Amino acid sequence: MSESAAIRDAYWRGVRHGLPFLLVIVPFGLLFGVAATKAGLDLAQVMGFSIMVIAGAAQFTALQLMGDHAPVVLVLAASLAVNLRMAMYSAALTPHLGKAKTWQKALVAYFMVDQAYALAANEYESHREMSRAAKLAYYAGVCTPVCPNWYVATLVGALVGAQIPPEFALDFAVPITFLAMIGPALRTLAHVAAALVSVVGALALSFLPSGVGLMIAALAAMVTGAQVELWVARRKAVQG
């Protein structure tokens, strides 16, 4: 297969892999549009929020704190804390995309959402032979159905949100999204151990404000995963 054909194939494979996430992206975006409008933001502010930030969890965090009339510094700090996972995502993708052109890395960074990272990380590990151009094409393919529809869903939610019956329970989209991303990634003992520690830690530290508990749980999970990986490697070395 030629390089151009491989790039096209990677792009359309990314589109196909990203399409199922519309089942959660659309209600998630609708929910934000509804919530932001009810919080008093006008249409331009709602859309500016989604287009500039494009991070659902951070947007909801900021919206809640703004509704509580929290200081701007606290709103920014809390949103940053929730979104610090993007720094971990970026570090994980650096071996694959770190040598891309600056404008390409800027686009990857802007469109860095949970779905794009989860699918890209899995694809890159499963297909190590992919060229950097094909990896970028796959990433773009994943983002094609996900990100524009986030904007559209936000717009629809802001325009007609008041007419959406509460029985639709749009907030189901948030946990379902993360379950769909994390489930397939639990392939090793280290992955399972890290997931368990993160769940237990997040629940135990839920009393902490502004997402601090989530960050502590995430750090504990990373340490646990790394230690389990080392333990498994040492055990294999002894057995070998």
Give descriptors for this structure.
single chain, 240 residues, mainly alpha, 2 domains, 12 helices, globular
The number of distinct β-strands equals 0
Sequence stretches where pLDDT stays below 50 over 5 or more residues: none
Strand content: under 5%
Average predicted local confidence, pLDDT: 83
Q: Give the termini distance in whole angstroms.
A: 39 Å
* Number of structurally distinct domains: 2
Structural class from helices and strands?
Answer: mainly alpha
Q: Summarize the biggest pleated sheet.
A: none
Please compute the radius of gyration using only Cα atoms. Answer: 19 Å
Question: DSSP helix count?
Answer: 12
Query: How would you spell out the order of helices and strands?
Result: HHHHHHHHHHHH
Task: Label the overall shape.
Answer: globular
Q: What share of the residues lie within helices?
A: over 70%
Short note summarizing the structure:
The protein is an all-alpha fold and 240 residues long. It contains 12 helices and no strands. It is globular and about 65 Å long.
Which helices and strands appear, and what pairs or packs with what?
Elements: H1 3-18, H2 22-38, H3 43-53, H4 56-67, H5 72-83, H6 85-97, H7 102-110, H8 114-126, H9 132-160, H10 173-182, H11 189-204, H12 212-239
